[in-house]
Amino acid sequence: MGRSYFVEEAVGQYLSSFISTEKNYVTGLLIGQCSSQRDYILLAVRTPSKEEQSESPKRNPIQPKLSDLDEEWIAEHANQVSRMLPGGLLVLGVFIITSPEQSKDAQTVLRKLVFTVEKSTMKSRLWRLMENDVSDRVTLHFCSVTKKMLCRTYDVRDAKSSAKPADWKYQSNVSSSWLPLECAVGINLLIPLSATSASREIHKNIRSGLTDWAAQIEKSIFLINGQVKEEDSELLEGQKKASRGTSQPGTQTFNVKVLLPLPQRPNDRCTATVQVCKGSINVRGVVKCRAYVHSNKPKVKDAIQALKRDILNTVSDRCEILLEDLILNGAPDDDSNRPCHALPQRVFTPLAGSYVMLCDYMLGNESVREIQEHILEMLDQNVPTEDFEISEEINTGTYPEMSGAFQMDGTDGEPVKKLGKARPVLKVGANMGMVLAAAVALLAAAFSFHYFSN
């Protein structure tokens, strides 16, 4: 028996809105949450048009063919959308709307896309799917004339996976009673830059430092509303049920406190090593994290896992966005011998018809309206600016007194240094590999002036 997908009715209305489109096909992403028992789809998002296509439609009168589909473009869109999802939400699959003439090729295209999208969204993550994670991803083909839908799944762990049938069921208010979890986590991460590594390997140092920090988060203890709960117990166990007609779904928030493990146990042998370094990066601040879990008897371990992954995602995503911004705009002038750059601030925005909130990241001197435009481009959601919730995140103190430290301040209070506008939208997505490579070179130039003296 295949998997069942419970889909928000608004998703069906969204897909139907493309039936009258002049294009031969429309592709997009399916966003939701999976669990051992059932899966949920909350949002469908079409793939944005390329800049040259949207600005000059008259120059390209020939309608696109399915064989011309740009996989790299779709994969980069999926990568950027994944940054905008809180813990518990994933890009669960892809959809395509075609004419009857192209239907026979649709399944081949969808199979390629679902693996490409999964690889794109997971490539920069500090975590990997575990054995108990659901690895099935969904594909949906919708015929624009017959309105017939074909829903299938593929196991993305198996490159040779064959299609399995799945049920697609529309429901209203799918996420109206989902449970939110929130926490604030202090970050003070010092990443050494090896003196023996080449400039092009700086990004590997950063990745290595974040990976070591991620291991600490995985070993942390999570207190839910001040209590340690058994992982296999139900999240709502012991909660008083509201009287009929008086419950307010979605308003109950679980406050979580993260207790990081001690760096060393008293009786453990010290394993510290001496490393010759030419500089370091210090990522510091307090980040606000948020996750959502379905209300169908959720387990404590699922809720904690969703929040852990949001912590890891938001820190690594901010570092990536800052690096992209540095190469797009160049590093701002800084007279100090320890240049500081403020990591982007997190902004939450509500998903229409749901208590679930999506997010985006706002760089130094970006305006809320620019974030509004970015959300419209990436998620096809027109969110009023007054609905934005800017997370209140704070600076965590003074800078360490150490020579050659390059501060990437992970704060959302008063920025240390304002950066120029450089929202990395899809127009540069196809060349993102070149962008990151150039960012590494830029950072190398910054570090070349800061060496530890013997």
From TrEMBL:
The chain crosses the membrane at residues 428-452. Keywords: Membrane, Transmembrane, Transmembrane helix. It is found in: Membrane. The keyword Transmembrane helix applies. GO terms for cellular component: endomembrane system; membrane. Belongs to the ODR-4 family. May play a role in the trafficking of a subset of G-protein coupled receptors. This is Protein odr-4 homolog. It comes from Microcaecilia unicolor.
